[in-house]
Amino acid sequence: MHSARDLHHDFLLYGFAVIAGGVVERLCAVFPADLPAFFPWEFSWPVWLFTTLGLGWFFLGLKRLAPEDRPPLWRGLVFIAGMLGNYAVLQTHIDYVAQHMFFIHRAAHFWLHHLGGFLIALGLAGKVIRAGMPFWLNPMLDAKPIRACLAILQHKLVAPFLFVGLLYFWLLPGLHTRVMLDRELYDLMNWTMALNGIMFWSLIVDPRPHPPARLSVLWRALAILIIELPQMALGAILSLAEVDFYPVYAICGRVIDMTALNDLHYGGLIIWLPGTLMSFLAMIVVLMNLRRNEEG
């Protein structure tokens, strides 16, 4: 149970989240074209609450945990960077440009699915967030259905194929056209990419040995290899294509003066090259954790 002081901090956080969110939503509705680029293009309560409550619970958790139980400063900073980056991709004018340029869309999804998820996972903020959230939420997170669902999604044979499968699925040309013209499907695509990125990279960068970590070092290396090769293939196909697979961006109207094929090629290169670098970075983290566990 939280103390009266803790409850006071909780109410301040929730009050800020609701009031500030309401103000931002109203501003976006009344002055959609006059706000700075860091304001939402289309306000989303789920993204706003995920960000404000996630960061709020993190800071409350830091305050409530003993110093020896807190993660190192650098982990907190990378977690905050990942959360703010996700918000920027989903709730600033970056989102508007991503709806009109394929290569910007791929850069946004690279952040959500790769770098942003990687940073959030690397922050190891779960324990801190649990300490900061309402006490009645923790049993819900530990409920058997939730645990069973996570066990399936993060199974060693499921996680890497789900990770790369989502990338391919949302880029199926016919489906992609439908998604870019349907706001609900568009939001679903972004949420699945962001959450799947966090879940996958949490498996890879977990500093604990196996067990209690879900994956051994060998399986982590295999998972990185499994996601890497299909990404390279997809990136190569798109970056070398001679046909525009995604005419929806011409329908929406490109906001940067660029041919459709150049837009497609740059998007393919973003899938190909940064994705490869992320795999190398992840492997380095895995090897560093292995060495640390052996020395410890």
TrEMBL record:
Main localization (coarse): membrane
> What membrane topology does the annotation report for this chain?
Multi-pass membrane protein
Where, by residue number, does the polypeptide cross the bilayer?
A: 12-33, 45-62, 74-94, 114-137, 157-176, 188-205, 217-241, 269-290
Q: Which residues form a coiled coil?
A: none
**Cellular compartments annotated:** Cell membrane
| Alphabetic keyword roster | Cell membrane, Membrane, Transmembrane, Transmembrane helix
Q: Which domain of life is it from?
A: Bacteria
Q: According to the UniProt entry, where is the signal peptide?
A: none
Q: Which InterPro entries does the record associate with it? A: Caa3_assmbl_CtaG-rel (IPR019108)
Q: Name one Pfam family in it.
A: Caa3_CtaG
| GO cellular component entries | plasma membrane
Q: Does the keyword Transmembrane apply?
A: yes
The entry's protein name is Putative membrane protein
